[in-house]
Design brief:
single chain; 414 residues; alpha/beta; Alkaline Phosphatase, subunit A; 10-stranded mixed sheet; 3-stranded antiparallel sheet; 11 helices; 13 strands; 30% helix; disordered N terminus
Length: 414
């Protein structure tokens, strides 16, 4: 169907390589440039899907019970990368240690959702909607954060909210249009080759022939927006500062986010995810399955940060995972679904070099339900502070309804 109604689903638009761009999302090249300049700061959200093991990511190596409960997968004191005399990074995260020491990277421990579910699906849904325990929420917290941002609507662009992947994630679904880009180099209207050209021509004719003057004008601007991105020659993008991104899906997503941010397309929020954190078996300690995942995770983030160069001063990057893992290892050398976890915040305006949050301890009596790291910081406080700092979002009650997210509750990492 050659109508804009055909491209809208769940309040969001997916731009997947050869997908079609509806004109009503785009204003003009001039507006895009103005928005990119006016908004200044950007928020990048990374989701670790599968429940990452926070206790082996930021290791409480002074806790005796940590070693009692994890006889074969615990990180020894001489293996961790010390942060503050109490906590240490997993050695596979060495690429991020300089950022911590330079004061750009902060960790928040014992953080998570107040909902007690151990279901991946439900926990991810609650964290992405920002309403733990409420399944009826239709939109994502980041979409609401952008709606609550103080920005002239006339300066908003089709690229304001971007996800790297084949579909718009729950986090960005909502009333404000968001786009999903699978491959920046193939971003186009209609598709590739002769068939794609025919589709593109058909859409141009449709927009040009409409009696709706606004639709006609904005339809042309859609094609101008695509031309603007194409003009950056994304297929031949060269990272700055001699950076070489790892050849992984996650690193490629961050590389494309860097491309989009540098292209001055008005990107204000970007999202990417990385899976395979569900380490029920053979998790490993300093080496092994978790270590390999952390290496990919850390190398990708470090490459992105160094690629952005001076522009990194305007970026706030926050990581999240649906819940942590059990304090005790299981019988197959892994860990099961837990509760408390760790989040990271990275940025030029971040008061890094510190592990934030109240540490609850790992003695048996201090564990949640006798099995997990307890939660002392609601994840919404971290996301709220990040949005407040990076997007200028002030109406946090609209972003996290019922969450009591206020500046008075902030950890002051920004």
């Amino acid at each position: 169907m050659n109508s804009r109604r055909a491209f809208v689903k769940n309040g969001a638009l997916a731009l997947v390589g050869t997908a079609t761009v509806p004109s009503f999302l785009v204003r003009s090249v001039m507006a895009q440039q103005q928005a990119a300049h006016a908004s200044g700061k950007k928020l990048v959200v990374l989701f670790q899907r599968g429940a990452a093991d926070g206790l082996n990511i930021v290791v409480p190596y002074r806790e005796k019970n940590y070693y009692t409960m994890r006889p074969t997968i615990a990180l020894q004191p001489n293996e961790v990368l010390d942060l503050d005399g109490q906590f240490g990074l997993h050695p596979a995260m060495a690429p991020l240690l300089p950022l911590f020491k330079q004061g750009h990277l902060a960790a928040i421990h014992a953080v998570g959702s107040p909902d007690t579910t151990r279901s991946h699906f439900d926990a991810q849904d609650y964290m992405e909607s920002g309403t733990p325990g409420i399944k009826s929420t239709q939109d994502g917290w980041l979409n609401r954060a952008l709606q609550a941002e103080r920005i002239d609507p006339k300066l908003a662009t089709a690229f304001r909210a971007v996800a790297l992947g084949t579909q718009v994630p729950r986090t960005l679904q909502g009333r404000l249009p968001a786009v999903a880009v699978a491959n920046v180099a193939n971003f186009t209207v209609g598709g590739q080759g002769a068939q794609g050209a025919a589709v593109s021509s058909a859409f141009q004719a449709m927009y040009a022939g409409t009696n709706d003057k606004i639709l006609s004008g904005e339809g042309q601007e859609t094609f101008e927006a695509v031309k603007m991105l194409k003009a950056t020659d994304p297929a031949h993008y060269k990272p700055a500062n001699g950076v070489t991104y790892p050849n992984t899906t996650f690193a490629n997503s961050l590389k494309q986010i860097a491309q989009l941010l540098k292209a001055n397309l008005g990107v204000e929020a970007a999202f990417a995810d990385i899976g395979d954190w569900d380490t029920h078996q053979a998790q490993g300690a300093a080496q092994g399955r978790l270590a390999n995942r952390l290496k990919e995770f850390s190398e990708g983030i470090a490459a992105f940060w160094n690629d952005m160069g001076q522009d990194s001063e305007h970026i706030t990057l926050v990581t999240m995972s649906e819940f942590g893992r059990t304090a005790r290892q299981n019988g197959t050398g892994g860990t099961d679904h837990g509760h408390g976890n760790v989040m990271f915040v990275l940025g030029g305006g971040i008061r890094g070099g510190k592990v934030y949050g109240q540490w609850p301890g790992l003695d048996d009596a201090q564990l949640n339900e006798g099995r997990d790291l307890a939660i002392t910081t609601d994840f919404r406080q971290v996301l709220g502070e990040a949005a407040f700092h990076a997007l200028g979002t002030r109406d946090l009650s609209a972003v996290f309804p019922g969450g009591n997210v206020t500046p008075a509750q902030f950890l002051r990492f920004a």
